[in-house]
């Protein structure tokens, strides 16, 4: 059963009690000792595998190398045994493991997603929670419960509170959710979690310029920073340090000045006491390394390429118009008014957020690859540029309505495409959800997660190391205390030596 918690701005003289604040309600969910159901446990395992696969594939990419170098400069801190960093065996301080692994997981934009009033990658909760679990010697059961909390809180916040409308980066929901998950992991009191949530929100609220125009490498660092801040916020709260209060509802708080303002009112859905945390089951992963709202369009482009091969040639095409949701049109479509989305020399991060580019390449190639599809020479191909510049997006109110629907059965992230050929023929087709979506043509199952891991780890990790990792993670509910280091994956000898670690200040 879900209870909707009302949230509005309160003047200071109203003296909103702590127990009526959203941060306290989040803490109450985190302290609920309800067990994890079997289907949720299976999905947590899937997402740990998914995170490992995309992190492994990015180990030698510049942002990940830099983050790993920073982490390796911070040895294990007091009160624990430290945490693992993907690719290496040397443990580091937990907050820096959260940082390095958070960057590795997010770098390719290839892990799970949840979209509603706002958008999110709930798998970003796993690096800080897992790092804290490894450092404290937690068990597999402890980790399961903690990750279920992290997903629950982030999904519930994303369902109710829109950030992007106010140009606030979506990781502002991640800091509180990761802090709550760590609170569950450690069995902390509600008051401690309350202050950790408040500090995490306060320190991770930033503008979304990181996802606008020429998108930089900070896009991968932003969620890692939120995870690192969550670990540090819990540490401070455990030491008795308090947070700005009320952090959400205060007259100088986040809602009043950064979101919908003094008259704002939200209804945040939270599970009641004793209700299992099942929000992870509403989330979905990616088959393709691209922004989630591009997933269905890649699948539709592949289908069109097979049925109408002539559409791959720009000489045959007069115009391609994608009718889609408000968010897709204005964030990754031509409605963003970002000329960089049509630039062959744009960064990978920018092309990843350009539906005109992604649809064009998938239409021409009939496939999508996490490296080849973004290669500079691929983006610069003259026939690709010619077709790419004929692709535009428009908002369709019905697809916007379905995008925001809270009914999972009708929620959609696709739309309708109209391709007008030079001879006047119009080809139309539509798609609601990606093939890999739980309601799609080929929903992702355990075998698909494992296949994705093996594909992305080829040449990076030895098969025996992958087998060891998979055997461990699939026994997660039964892993004893102190054994969660088994969930790290080490690169094959010499692989990381191919890229030199950059020198910084520290």
From TrEMBL:
Every MmgE/PrpD C-terminal domain range: 288-475
Family matches, as InterPro entries: MmgE/PrpD_sf, MmgE/PrpD_sf_1, MmgE/PrpD_sf_2, MmgE_PrpD, MmgE_PrpD_C, MmgE_PrpD_N
Record bears the keyword Cytoplasm: no
EC number of this enzyme: 4.2.1.79
Classification lineage: Bacteria, Bacillati, Actinomycetota, Actinomycetes, Micrococcales
Short name of one Pfam family: MmgE_PrpD_C
Protein known as: 2-methylcitrate dehydratase
PANTHER family named among the record's database cross-references: 2-METHYLCITRATE DEHYDRATASE (PTHR16943:SF8), 2-METHYLCITRATE DEHYDRATASE-RELATED (PTHR16943)
All residue ranges annotated as the MmgE/PrpD N-terminal domain in the record: 21-264
Catalytic activity as recorded in UniProt: (2S,3S)-2-methylcitrate = 2-methyl-cis-aconitate + H2O
A Gene Ontology molecular function term of the record: 2-methylcitrate dehydratase activity
The UniProt record lists the keyword Phosphoprotein: no
UniProt family annotation: Belongs to the PrpD family.
Keywords of the record: Lyase
Organism superkingdom: Bacteria
Complex formation: Monomer.
């Amino acid at each position: 059963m879900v209870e909707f918690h009302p949230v509005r701005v309160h003047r200071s003289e109203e003296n909103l009690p702590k127990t009526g604040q959203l941060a306290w309600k989040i803490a109450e969910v985190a302290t609920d000792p309800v067990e994890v159901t079997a289907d949720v446990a299976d999905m947590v395992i899937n997402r740990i595998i998914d995170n490992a696969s995309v992190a492994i594939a990015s180990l030698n990419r510049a942002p990940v190398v830099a983050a790993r170098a920073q982490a390796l400069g911070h040895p294990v801190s007091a009160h624990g045994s430290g945490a693992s960093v993907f690719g290496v065996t040397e443990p580091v301080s937990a907050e820096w493991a959260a940082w390095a692994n958070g960057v590795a997981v997010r770098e390719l934009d290839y892990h799970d997603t949840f979209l509603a009033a706002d958008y999110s990658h709930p798998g970003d909760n796993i690096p800080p929670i897992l790092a804290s679990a490894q450092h404290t010697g937690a068990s597999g059961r402890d980790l399961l419960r903690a990750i279920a909390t992290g997903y629950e809180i982030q999904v519930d916040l994303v369902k109710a509170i829109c950030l992007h409308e106010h140009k606030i980066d979506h990781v502002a929901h991640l800091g509180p959710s990761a802090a709550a998950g760590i609170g569950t992991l450690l069995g902390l009191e509600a008051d401690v979690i309350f202050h950790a949530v408040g500090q995490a929100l306060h320190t991770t609220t930033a503008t979304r310029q990181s996802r606008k125009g020429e998108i930089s490498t900070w896009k991968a660092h932003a969620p890692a920073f939120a995870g690192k801040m969550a670990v540090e916020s819990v540490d401070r709260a455990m030491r008795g340090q308090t947070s700005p209060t009320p952090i959400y509802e205060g007259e100088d708080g986040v809602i009043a000045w950064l979101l919908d303002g003094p008259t704002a009112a939200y209804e945040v859905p939270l599970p009641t006491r004793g209700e299992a945390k099942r929000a992870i089951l509403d989330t979905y992963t990616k088959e393709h390394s691209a922004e989630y709202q591009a997933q269905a369009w890649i699948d539709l482009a592949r289908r069109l390429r097979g049925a109408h091969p002539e559409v791959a040639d720009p000489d045959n095409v007069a115009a391609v118009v994608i009718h889609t949701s408000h968010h897709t049109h204005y964030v990754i479509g031509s409605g963003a008014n970002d000329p960089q989305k049509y630039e062959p020399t744009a960064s990978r991060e920018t092309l990843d957020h350009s539906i005109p580019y992604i649809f064009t390449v998938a239409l021409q190639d009939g496939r999508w690859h996490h490296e080849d599809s973004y290669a500079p020479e691929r983006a610069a191909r003259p026939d690709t540029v010619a077709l790419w510049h004929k692709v535009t997006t428009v908002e369709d109110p019905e697809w916007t309505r379905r995008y925001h629907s809270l009914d999972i059965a009708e929620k959609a992230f696709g739309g309708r495409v109209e391709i007008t050929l030079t001879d006047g023929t119009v080809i139309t087709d539509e798609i609601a959800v990606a093939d890999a979506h739980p309601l799609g043509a080929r929903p992702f199952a355990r075998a698909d997660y494992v296949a994705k891991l093996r594909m992305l780890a080829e040449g990076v990790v030895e098969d025996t190391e992958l087998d060891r990792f998979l055997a461990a993670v699939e026994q997660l509910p039964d892993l004893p205390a102190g054994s969660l280091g088994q969930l790290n994956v080490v690169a094959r000898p010499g692989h990381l030596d191919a890229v030199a670690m950059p020198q910084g200040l520290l």
